[in-house]
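Lab notebook: predicted structure, single chain.

Context: the supervisor wants predicted structures on file for every construct in the current expression panel, including those that have not yet been purified. This is the next one on the list. No modifications to the sequence; it matches the entry in the shared construct table.
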Amino acid sequence: MKRRDFNLGALGAAALAAHGPLAGIAHAQGIGTLKVMIPANPGGGWDQTGRNLAAAMQSVGAIQSAQFDNKGGAAGTIGLAQFINSAKGDPNTLMIGGMVMVGGIILNKSPVELSMVTPVARLTSEYEVIVVPANSPHKTLGDLMNAFKANPGAVSWGGGSAGGTDHILVGLAVKAVNGDTSKINYVPFKGGGEAIAAIVGGHVTAGVSGLGEFAEQIKGGRMRALAVSSPERLEGIATMKEQGVDVVLGNWRGCFGAPGISTAQRDALVRAVKAGTDSPAWKDTLAKLGWTPWFLGGDDYRKFIEEDIVRVGGILDSLGLKKK
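Prediction complete. Output recorded below exactly as produced.
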């Protein structure tokens, strides 16, 4: 577990809170230090989301500072359990999560669920990228899928938690080329840093993650991007569809409040998060990491999560990944 304080530009943020269009927001909510649970190891998409969101909220005076707690493992459910147990009733806490957690809860039949926390806001959507090490013999997505069909066990796929978006994408890709999903050799990692090291080091055949997570490695020539899961090319990378693998998949991320907070306290968090996502700092983050803004707050977000649980469960079941 890593706990860090984050206090970028506190004087500037205080000045904005006192004199800018968001005057009084921090005081109205009573958010001095926002405690952020990131249920993943440092370096991955949730970590990037949590830290950049807090910086954006601070830049407009919605919070004064932020404290982070990284607790990775089991598709975020270890951090989720800790958040449920330790943050109950605390209106100054947020937990990062998303589609990966939805899948992990279903796949692992987790005793903790998203119904136990308070949905605050959906933040972003991000398309996935399939990569190989720079020295890989696989030059195209077709090469990789042919290798899998010839010898499934010899092709290992590295990504985030089992049952998450990365795992689902591999399953959909294999299904699209009439491969055997039961023979997928999927290697889950607790965080982006661990996954990057394994892929670059050639310890797995291919890697899957959000495009932003691998962007620097691709640009630096340490990874070769084979395909993106978007409907159109991104960063010059060919889509899965144009290479004969009929799959389009986006990964959403959002944030949650503690169990047991009031509707008024939740709404205050929604306003603070929305102020952060309207900031220039957040818009710069979206552009840098290739994330698509997809804000949805409060009750609408809660309804979206309930529907996504059904949707993801159906995908996992169709791929034979769901535990009986």
